[in-house]
Specification:
heterodimer, A: 155 residues, mainly beta, Immunoglobulin-like, 11 strands, B: 413 residues, Porin, 4 helices, 48% strand
């Protein structure tokens, strides 16, 4: 995960349990990453470039990242122990090649307001394919505002 | 297994230490801004020169003017400390040619368990203004600040220590953040002197440390030096701020400089101004570049030299609506303001009342350049104009400014 133009890039990673992430900083300004999320509490002191070894995520769950210098920076690392996972396309679809059988599918997005139980479903994959559609009942939270100059909100 | 893990983490720590030393971090951020203006203005001269005008420029000041020359730097001091200095030259006749509008040490430990603490010590702005959110405490919407912010920039500054504790709900899946702010300060015992004498104005002229408002010997403002300690009493303010996502900010703050209104400096013949006020504000950043701001401020400043009390209750509010289209921003603001004056045996001692309309267009093609055009019209009644300047109490003043600003800096691409 890089930091470009004072934003995490990408702002969402889905990774398997016990994998590592390298946090680079391609900006001209320094950043300072922190997380106080229970699955992974850590800090990367003020840096530029790629000075730190990769960070290992050894507990499943949601890790929210911030920069202690630039409050508007926000990113998520979803650490999962699921055998199949991924990030949906812009139209909300995701597919995977899996052996036949019953599967439990759960979804997450920072802007979803629905309760957890509405975000899970079960699907049985027959010989050809299985398909599951999860429909949100509540509207999404507003998207983060874009285009605000970085010099704003120092006050 | 346990000992293996322990050994690995020691190795990790050693690696981090080695890397931290071998990869120097650019710890200094700096910015230099030059803002030139072409001004057309009528009406009385500005308060900075002892006039009773309502705008930054006035009298015979039409023509080319310096808006602001500013140099700011932030130096990191280790991991969680930084030092910020903001110096400006305004091209007018202040006591000091160049001065600091802000200078403070910031301690910002890493957030823990959903809470973030920040502590500032030095000279800085209290978190009141919702429009002056850009660097240098400038407004990204207009050139001239609202009456409330013009007064804050002129007379109110925290010279002390402020702690801000935020509950970072948004980072824990909630929609809200909540922040509490408290500060103890000194050297603001003259806040209110220029407001009582000259009323509210609409300007972007911020006072500097050691600077003054007004001109020595020119009444009624004379040379008001807002940043002085007169009585040894610490002042306090406390506030609360609620943020909904990155869209809405709602804030309240109560300020009390706790000056002893009977304190007199016999050397300079100045008195302490006991000033308290409340402020409330709401800012909404909407989709498609819309921003709306409402802000209210009300309080009182009083003096009581030799036991005879004079008091000036004051109130002001404004509404601002702004729309950004790519690199273009159009903003409109309406201000209303009033300062009453009460002294025994007099009903209308020095009161001022007025309203102002501001229209501004800003074009920012890149991070370095900004072009701005602003029309500001102020209508105000001020009894001091009749008493001290032999003018009409009612005055209508129009100021049109064209501004070209260029910024250099380590953070400007």
């Amino acid at each position: 995960m890089d930091q470009v133009n004072r934003a995490f890039d990408p702002d969402l990673l889905v990774i398997p349990l016990n994998s590592t992430v390298t946090f680079a900083n391609s900006d001209t300004v320094s950043h300072q990453i922190y997380s106080f999320s229970p699955p992974k509490r850590f800090q990367l002191p003020l840096y530029r470039g790629k000075p730190y070894p990769p960070t290992r995520f050894d507990q499943a769950g949601l890790v929210t990242l911030g920069c202690n210098i630039h409050d508007e920076m926000l990113a998520y690392v979803v650490v999962t122990d699921a055998p199949y996972f991924g990030r949906t396309a812009a139209d909300g679809t995701w597919s995977a090649d899996v052996p036949g059988g019953p599967y439990r599918v759960s979804i997450w997005h920072p802007r979803i307001r629905d309760e957890d139980k509405a975000l899970q479903g079960e699907v049985t994959v027959a010989e050809s394919e299985g398909k599951l559609t999860l429909r949100l009942k509540r509207p999404l939270k507003p998207a983060p505002l874009e285009g605000k100059p970085h010099s704003w909100d120092r006050y | 297994m346990g000992s293996l893990l322990k050994r690995t983490s020691w190795l990790g720590a050693a690696a981090l230490l080695g890397l931290a030393v071998s990869s120097p971090v650019p710890a200094l951020d700096w910015e230099l801004d030059l803002d030139g203006r072409l001004v057309s203005v009528n009406g009385p001269g500005p308060i900075i020169d002892g006039g009773l005008g309502s705008t930054r420029f006035g009298g015979d000041q039409s023509g080319t003017r310096l808006g602001r020359a500013r140099f700011a730097l932030t130096q990191s001091l280790g991991e969680v400390w930084s030092l910020s200095l903001d110096a400006s030259y305004w091209g007018d006749h202040d006591k000091t040619p160049v001065g600091l509008t802000e200078g403070y040490l910031l301690w910002r430990p890493y957030p823990r368990d959903g809470f973030r603490l920040r502590v500032k010590t030095g000279a800085f702005y209290a978190p009141i203004s919702l429009e002056n959110r850009a660097s240098g405490w400038e407004s990204p919407y207009t050139l001239s600040y609202a009456a409330i912010d013009s007064w804050l920039g002129q007379e109110v500054r925290t010279l002390g220590t402020e702690a801000q504790l935020d509950w970072l709900g948004r980072r824990m899946g909630h929609d809200f953040d909540v922040g509490l702010t408290g500060a103890a300060f000194g050297w603001n015992d003259n806040a209110g002197a220029a407001l009582a004498a000259g009323g509210f104005t609409l300007t972007d002229r911020q006072s500097v440390m050691g600077g003054r408002v007004g001109k020595p010997g020119v009444p009624p403002v004379r040379a008001a030096e807002p940043f002085r300690e007169m009585d040894g009493n610490a002042g306090f303010y406390g506030g609360v701020e609620v943020r909904y996502l990155d869209r809405v900010v709602l804030q309240f703050l109560r300020y009390d400089n706790r000056a002893n209104p009977g304190a007199v400096d016999v050397v300079s013949h100045t008195v302490a101004w006991d000033t308290t006020f409340n402020s409330a504000g709401l800012r909404v950043d909407g989709d498609r570049g819309w921003t709306a701001i409402f802000q209210w401020l009300g309080g009182v400043t009083l003096i009581a030299p030799e036991g005879e009390q004079e008091r000036w209750p004051f109130r002001a509010h404004y509404a601002l609506l702004s729309k950004t289209f790519g690199k273009h921003t159009l903003s409109a603001r309406y201000d209303w303001f009033k300062v009453d004056g009460y002294r025994e045996g007099e009903d209308d001692h020095g009161w001022q009342k007025g309203h102002a309309s501001t229209l501004a267009y800003l074009f920012q093609p890149n991070a370095s350049w900004r072009l701005a055009l602003e029309w500001l019209h102020v209508v105000s009644t001020d009894y001091n104009r009749e008493d001290f300047a032999q003018g009409d109490t009612l005055d209508s003043q129009t100021q049109v400014q064209l501004s070209v600003r260029y910024a250099w800096g380590s953070t400007i691409p």
